Amino acid sequence: MKVNRSIEEINEKIKSGSAVVFTAEEIIDFVEEKGVNEAAASVDVVTTGTFGPMCSSGVFLNVGHPGPRIKFNEVYLNDVPAYAGIAAVDFYLGATALPAKDPANSNYPGEFVYGGGHVIEDLVAGKEIRMEASAYGTDCYPRESINTGFKLAEINEATLYNPRNAYQNYNVAVNLSSKTIYTYMGILKPNLGNANYSSAGQLSPLFNDPLLQTIGMGTRIFLGGGTGYVAWHGTQHNPSAPRCENGTPRAPGATLALTGDLKQMNARWLRGLSFLGYGVTMQVGVGIPIPILNEEIMKYCAVRDEELMAPVVDYHRGYPYKEGEPLGEVSYAELKSGQVTIQGQKVPTASLSSYAGAREIAAELKEWITSGRFTLTVPAKGLPSTEAGIQLNSLPQRNPEREDG
Amino acid sequence: MIKQKIVLRYPPHVVEQPTIYHLIKDFDLMVNILRADINPKKEGRLMMELSGEELNYQRALEWLREQGLHVMGLEQQIIWREEKCTHCGACTVICPTEALAFNRPEMTVSFSEDKCIVCELCLRACPARAMETLVENNNSVK
Fold it and tell me: Cβ A350–B128 below 8 Å, yes or no?
């Protein structure tokens, strides 16, 4: 390889305003025209983006001590419960948390109008958040309840910590049954009525660094409209997923745990969502810069939707009951065309992840870099990749009361 | 000739009157009912397409209002809050008339009011809840 660029060199160019940056969409035609070697020689950074529902998201809050002090036992924000099993006025609000009074699916399919993701959106938007909390009272924390309100700017910390974001590929969900089903992949009409997918494909961060050669712990990123960092590999991280010849996984693969200061984020890119019959979640905007260190990394960034394959999974039996195998594979180019063929049948497609949003994020991150306000980081530690031999586990089911269990 | 899609809102006391009969018999209009939600002694809603002579159509609307019915244009019934829309496209496979459509290669959602039949499936299919109805808005104001 002729190109051997360092992140330090790239940062020098960013600071002098001379870095050459393309989005992961723009780079496709550029590489097509110039070839990988010439493109690698002239391009410093490729920016990626994704804006999809990411359930494994939430925020750690510290609201400061009232006087007298309190050690929260139960905390509700706009009626949505937060997890208070950590220090006195620290708690974690998860994106899928529901108010205790929410009827959920008792009136199927439930509407799930408001939950954790919506509270986070309201918090970032600067709205007043109603808080009710109770405690059992101790000598050091005597207060037993508080009923108050606060805004984001008035509390100590709000740290977004998302245990699993930016999935490298995802299932295409269909319904083989004869009745409509309501899933986290949206409404699935009967008899292969529609096929829903959720990835930005060629713009998606981990599709552009399939073997995790540049993205690692400490990588600085676009998160929720502000800056954030890769904290760790995400939960259910599965770099051992089967791969195409171009190195990209043909099933859900790597994931990222992401973190950042909520106070500098933007409600436009952290949106509470209501999935009919499923629950609430949050749509998270993520953009990751990929430093073009050499020709190999350039080649991976030039990947296009035609070469990215997703498994088609039945969400009536296949996914919920872990039955059978995927019904086949389709490319993201086919998915984005609006129609795919599954079992000989033409099926209309819809996305849950916003490609327009992904495009905007990649463009915004590009602007941050070219304007010199965002520099790249050298990861403190790589993430487990194909060589790690990770195998996903299933929860054991045994009776702990029985010795022979 | 005129052809218009309208929505009638029935106050509870008019629900049991044979309104459609009069539209056909007295005003010589063709009536194509798109959607109806009529219940005894409750406020009802009827969406329909009316066609016929312009003068008859105008007289019919006047008569409907005299009966205590609220007459509204169909296009005002479903509102696309574009600022709330994230352009994912989830609604576009649920909308039966392609009023909500996905534009390629822009990969954005658009809403054509003239194609909307107010089935309201989009209201709950939109995860960002960017689709709203006028009727619900009215109720929430009360």
Answer: no
What whole-number distance in Å separates Cα of residue A57 and Cα of residue A220?
18
Q: Do A196 and B90 touch (CB under 8 A)?
A: yes
Q: Considering only alpha carbons, which residue of chain B is nearest residue A192? A: B93
Cβ–Cβ contact A359 with B under 8 A: yes
Name residue A120's beta-bridge partners: none
Model confidence pLDDT, tens digit, residues A276-298? 999 999 999 999 999 999 999 99
Pick the catalytic residue from A55, A140, A244, A301.
A140
- Shared domain check, B54 and B11: yes
Domains of chain B: total = 2
Considering B34, B60, B75, which residue would you say is the last residue of a domain?
A: B75
Q: How far is A373 from chain B (nearest CA, A)?
A: 26
Place of tokens 């590489």: A31
User: Is the Cα dihedral A68, A72, A74, A76 positive or negative?
Assistant: positive
- Is the confidence at residue A80, as pLDDT, over 60? yes
Tokens 């998201």 correspond to what residue? A57
Asked if the Cβ–Cβ distance from B86 to A354 is below 8 Å, we say yes
pLDDT at position B119 over 80: yes
Check whether residue B18 and residue B65 sit in a common domain: yes
Domain boundary among B21, B52, B75: B75
pLDDT for residue B135: 61
Q: Do B114 and B68 fall within a single domain?
A: no
User: What residues make up the domain containing B131?
Assistant: 77-141
CATH code of B115's domain: 3.30.70.20
Closest chain B CA to residue A199: B88
Q: What is the pLDDT of residues A151-199, one digit of tens each?
A: 999 999 999 999 999 999 999 999 999 999 999 999 999 999 999 999 9
Same-domain status, B6 and B65: yes
In this complex, which of B87, B88, B124 lies closest to A276 when CB atoms are compared?
B124
Whether the Cβ atoms of residue A249 and residue A228 lie closer than 8 Å to each other? no
Say if the Cβ atoms of B86 and A271 lie within 8 Å.
yes
Give the whole-angstrom CA distance, residue B86 versus residue A117. 15
Catalytic residue status for A55: no
Query: Does pLDDT of B2 surpass 60?
Result: yes
Which ipTM did the prediction report? 0.93
Same domain flag for B68 and B7: yes
Q: What pTM value is reported for the model?
A: 0.92
